[in-house]
Protein 1
Amino acid sequence: MRIIVDGMGGDNAPGEIVKGCLQAAALAPHEIVIVGDETAVRKELDKHSGGGSISVIHASQTIENDEAPVKAVRTKKDSSIVKGLNMVKEKEADLFISAGNSGAIMAGSMFILGRIPGIDRPAIAATFPILSRGAALLADSGANTDCKPRNLLEFATMGSIYAEKVLELPSPRVGLINVGVEASKGPALQKAAYELLELSPSLNFIGNVEAREVPQGCCDVAVCDGFTGNVFLKTMEGMGSAVMRTVKHSLTSDAFSKMGAFLLMGKLRKMKALFDYAEYGGAPILGVRGAVVKMHGSSDARAVKCAILKGIPYAENKVVQMIEDSVLEMEALERSE
Amino acid sequence: MRIIVDGMGGDNAPGEIVKGCLQAAALAPHEIVIVGDETAVRKELDKHSGGGSISVIHASQTIENDEAPVKAVRTKKDSSIVKGLNMVKEKEADLFISAGNSGAIMAGSMFILGRIPGIDRPAIAATFPILSRGAALLADSGANTDCKPRNLLEFATMGSIYAEKVLELPSPRVGLINVGVEASKGPALQKAAYELLELSPSLNFIGNVEAREVPQGCCDVAVCDGFTGNVFLKTMEGMGSAVMRTVKHSLTSDAFSKMGAFLLMGKLRKMKALFDYAEYGGAPILGVRGAVVKMHGSSDARAVKCAILKGIPYAENKVVQMIEDSVLEMEALERSE
């Protein structure tokens, strides 16, 4: 398998990207290629022993975070994002990973790889931590702010396949994020989506779920429009970091507490890791004809390593092909009704 | 001032309601009246010394949590919710507080008190904790799942007045919850609402705010549709309780940690209080012609006490009258454009 990593994307590129690639290369027997400014990337590679195990493909352009995505993808043909996606399209690579401009990764995936036929709206499916055990998937987490009911069915179907094949959650429980558990609850969008989800024979739909229960693991795939997904994910992040900051502040505010905190150091460190989104391996773009993973802009080496390792089963298990097949089934069913 | 408390609403009625009323009565020089089943309420009052300071008005009916709100309000004329709201309407009371059926409190407020002229959609404005300092307001927190842009302007205007007069936040900073800070971001609803909020001369509008920053206090009044508000608030609750459970579990999992936790006991208790929503005094129904506060269904005595104490400045500062005036100003401005 050949994995292309964008060497120029994110706040910590190329240094942390290169480090993460080296860490992943030490663990996984796959070819890792960094696409980006060759001089800059090689300079980082040279700082590490084993830097020779990673090859570099030169890209003379970089899409910055503040660029308009569609225009950037259309005009910067030699950017790391466009080049990386083209390699996936041409089957020269199995997976593309980037911490760069989210809009450009999304737009590029749609223009270059194309949507899977029958998928109206590809989704960004974020993995988020369930504190008691592992992780769950949120689809859509922000790509599509205005949605139709059918889009939510697509998110659920694609998310279920990813959760089963990559997160290793068998027969994943699909929940629709809503204001109450009764089928009659919520805005027009959620009411109509509920009916579609309930009728789908391929989904393990457990009904509406309240946002309070989702961080505690009440479902494996939480389905919502991208606006709601963004609010949910960012509230989790904001609340998690606010709480941990309060804990830390509280536990070091006097000598007596500091002594207690000292005894708990290992535990507190473990806890911090639980809330550390870097552990959760980036977000796949589902619904396009290729395996693409978007990482958080602030990804460090560990996040890059995790995204690469999580990306392997995503590409290896033919998730994209399975989504294509499931859409065909969905459409056959709709015709027969 | 005369405060009416619903003795029958919520999971812990009437026991905790009565206790909370007594605690508030000991602190505030106002008349507190409990409306509900007289025998049941008196039985609870008799358990406490000073029970005589609270008067009781009998209501022969109770609206249960699973009843359809509109029908319940229309048919149960002698219920505690309908009686309490009628007393506010007839100026026999200044404030009504209930932990009962949210839909019935909302529907009853609209039918019995009526909407403030010019307000299309009254809102439930929840107060939520900012860990570093005090609290902020979320409007709407769940009453209106499908909204128009003008509704969000109403929520902002009403929320600002409440935040200033009750939460004592001068010139409150109003933020629109959105997926990014740029004016052009988000769904159609948020884009249109942004324009209205920006044009309003009476608001201290600081622009879009991301859900990540809201729990950390980036604004004093967070504006959104009720679906988004519900997701935001419940994610905060769910994440807060998940984190605290993890902290507790982590800190008591072995003898060494237990010793550390023992040293930190006071701090941990203080922290728990920070996340305890009971501290934050219920949610006013804004946009109806009277002061009404909805408490969480699981409110205990302390939550009841807080809701009563927070309700006093709400009724005393003529917030309802100020909202009426501000709507007139808003409409005069619209006509002059």
Protein 2
Amino acid sequence: MNYHQESYTGKITRKVNKKLRIVDVAAGRQKADLVLKNASYVNVFTNEICQGDIAVAEGLIVGMGAYSGEVEYDLSGKIVLPGFIDAHIHLESSLVSPKEFAKAVLPHGTTTVITDPHEIANVMGTDGIEYMLQATADLPVDVRFMLPSCVPATPLDESGAILDYRSIDSFYDHPRVQGLAEMMNYVGAINADPNVIEKIVAAQAHHKKIDGHAPGITGNDLNAYIAAGVYSDHECSTLEDAIAKIERGQFIMIREGTAARNLEALLPLLTPQYADRCMFCCDDKHPSDLLEKGHIDYQVKEAIAHGVDPILAIKVACHHAARYYLLNNRGAIAPGYLADFVIIDNFRDFRIEKVFKRGELMVEDGVVADFPAPEVDPYLVKKAHDTFHVAHLTAQDFQDPRPRGVIGLVPGEIASRDMGYAERIDTEKDILKIAVIERHKNTRHIGIGYLQGYGLKTGAVATSISHDSHNIIVVGTSEEEMALAANRVVENRGGIVVTADGTVTAELVLAIAGIMSDDTLENVNRDLEAAKAVAISQGVNPGIDPFMTLSFMALPVIPTLRLTTRGIIDVNTQQYI
Amino acid sequence: MNYHQESYTGKITRKVNKKLRIVDVAAGRQKADLVLKNASYVNVFTNEICQGDIAVAEGLIVGMGAYSGEVEYDLSGKIVLPGFIDAHIHLESSLVSPKEFAKAVLPHGTTTVITDPHEIANVMGTDGIEYMLQATADLPVDVRFMLPSCVPATPLDESGAILDYRSIDSFYDHPRVQGLAEMMNYVGAINADPNVIEKIVAAQAHHKKIDGHAPGITGNDLNAYIAAGVYSDHECSTLEDAIAKIERGQFIMIREGTAARNLEALLPLLTPQYADRCMFCCDDKHPSDLLEKGHIDYQVKEAIAHGVDPILAIKVACHHAARYYLLNNRGAIAPGYLADFVIIDNFRDFRIEKVFKRGELMVEDGVVADFPAPEVDPYLVKKAHDTFHVAHLTAQDFQDPRPRGVIGLVPGEIASRDMGYAERIDTEKDILKIAVIERHKNTRHIGIGYLQGYGLKTGAVATSISHDSHNIIVVGTSEEEMALAANRVVENRGGIVVTADGTVTAELVLAIAGIMSDDTLENVNRDLEAAKAVAISQGVNPGIDPFMTLSFMALPVIPTLRLTTRGIIDVNTQQYI
């Protein structure tokens, strides 16, 4: 059926036809498509475990009670939960396509995620948003969107696109767009920057949500940020910060991701006083983390292990995000809700035995049923695989006779220290050269500086994952190796490259916008872990993640020193040094 | 400013301009319009009483903390609550215009009501809905609409209009329309009647709410009703009924109105286990009840008096309805929310000292500030005052040689008994003649029957309030008196008339669609109470309400016998007798 040719009356009659069957099945006049017999299920409305058959028709739950169905599963002794919702994730952080991401999270019970495609939008602008919309259509994990609010992240960034409110406005009509993503420019919001305020106002004019990102702001600044129209925050790392925001009406997304982990600090929110205003999210989730730890299920398990009431933990994992985002047909087990189920053995072991999406059994004992990859417009596929516009680089491009600032790494942190100036590479003193190469518009802008504390003793490391503009970052023990590594990244149309002695010693190809792979999650993880091992074998300090650490080096909002395409900047003074 | 000539960009810039000031005031860079100093206020998010100044700009709360303003009130020792919300009311039941209604409820702290204009819609169809939308524009009580779902109430009714889904569809675009009102035809919904289902589906297609009305249905029937797409219920009179609905995901509106009072039975819902899914409503509220008892404040006071946690009672009275209806900027005291405040002395006495609407002081010590009546299109005003299309009636019209069924009144109930047949009026045996006169389309349809238990000894009583079609109901001791009373109702363009000995002994004029007065609430109440006294002095049983009892006589959904414009029907068999 081509919905584009459908009239309004046609749409109504199509939906009536489906609804009539739903009512017939609910009333017991027709057999259900699926019945979960003898289920114990979490009732998020009465805050208790209920018993009964759960009947499904047309992908929706139609009733609980006594039913028979074409397909029946006896769930005696098991517990049925609503499918989990990740309230805020950048899908790109998984380094794989949305289909691969879905395959990875389904066994963990995730059936809906709300994504902010701001990584790809920084590379491809609105084409990147559209690419992700198409690449997530009809996946067995529903992917809903928040539109990137800060592209570029700062005026200092040379990104692939600049998105003002007009650029993104038409996306609000898309049925899977829920609002405006994390307003990272909280300084702009508090100071009534019209470019920030108009983005918020436009989202409100479309009756959409606006997510926040404002760690640690307090008092009247916090009032101003919320009064501007920001409804949530996922950056709380202290209980005090979270409670101040809840008091003023914000919803809190308790984050447990790869780069930032706040669950433990925020556990006291998971009590009847506050939990209504809380949901779970991961923000960023890297391949190994997805494969080893899991997803929202991990947060639920941890919460329960720390003594949180299991029913409350489940509500935080599904119902609250659904209500916040006005996704009224999910996050509960009741008539009219999506038949998204997670079947577990018990709350203590929390072994996920089956996962259903819209009434389809998608996971059984960890095995994911096959499903097609959404078709993306060939024009967009081509564009997504052609995002590097950089002329061939030579060692000469990285030469610089003048002294440059030295960024000092701090193990275990993404903040850096100001280590003065250097004039040349000195591996004995662990002084490496670092460069950021503008790669979107062939401007030949190359910012050069020095890095201390990385540890590399030979060769170079380059990556096109560099927040948020995703220019190429390269660190090397010589300018020749830097050129080799960076050129190889361009040749590969993106990814991570490690070189030594004039050859590539390890690489991960990320050909979708330079930040995601066309390969499987397992292969991406294998290549990534192998590259990490090679980088460490070439001297990188084992106490730091060789690539993630670099990926934050060009983000000019994290103190102290950062490197942009125009040189080293002191984040505190916002001055080039 | 003529918003009809505003472009989208114009709308955004207008809102940006306002938002910039809000942020400036919140951040403390500009003075607030209003500050409630030293306030103790109910924080619905943290479930506690908080302290601080509450700052207001542009009608919105901008922050809590330390602020100064152009106008300041020291509220030391007082408690500030968010304005109350009535989740379901037929404004017409107050018998006055929306402006008069607003004047009556403001001193009780009501700042938002959700109305279903189904009384006027039964008379005037979509013109009636539009009349109410215009008559409620910019009132200091926000009036939001649910579109009537059942006009006429049943196929047996001869109403002024028949509204299918297409007739009401364009109203969903109106910014004050929240959805589809109480789906009273639950039998149709459960039995998958396409005319019912298409109304629900259309409301869902507009992402709107659908309210329910289904007393006592259970099991798979209840599943079917909810699976059809009905999200709430306000007809629960037992705890069991309410919990069955909450379990299946419905929201419960705890009703305390004039005709039906369910608060006491449903008090156990007001506990942490269930209260999240509950709100307050009155459904119908007659003049004396409004003047003497109050409104939502009455429910809050009663709940607290019965031991309910005051903060929880307040949440039920404002926040929960706001969230259910997606009115995201009210029902709480926090930045970005409407500056709708109720100031009380304490929870025990619960004396409402001040009421603010959008930052304006509207009530002080019971005195309501003056405000203009919304302007209604003259075409609609004229139409609303010309809804009687009935030829002059004579005694002959009420003559009938054949025996007719006798409706037996049951004191204290609206249900009736089947008392057999009668052939003539016999006041000795309390057998009166009753007639329903079709009054919308001059069909000359007059249904005739007999009534026992009413008690009238002389004259007649006629009313044009007769649910839901609002035809004229007349009861009399003679056909001449019946003609006199009914003709006088028509002459008055609606209302209530009592006659005796060939003259009008009391009357209440309701010239707006025959169901609402152009006069003040106080005058309407005075005339109504006077008419009641006259009717009782003419013999009407003092144990029944002389007019409300009659107003349900033509509603063919309440057992046992009812009188339609085509004669007496047995509601249980749906057969004319």
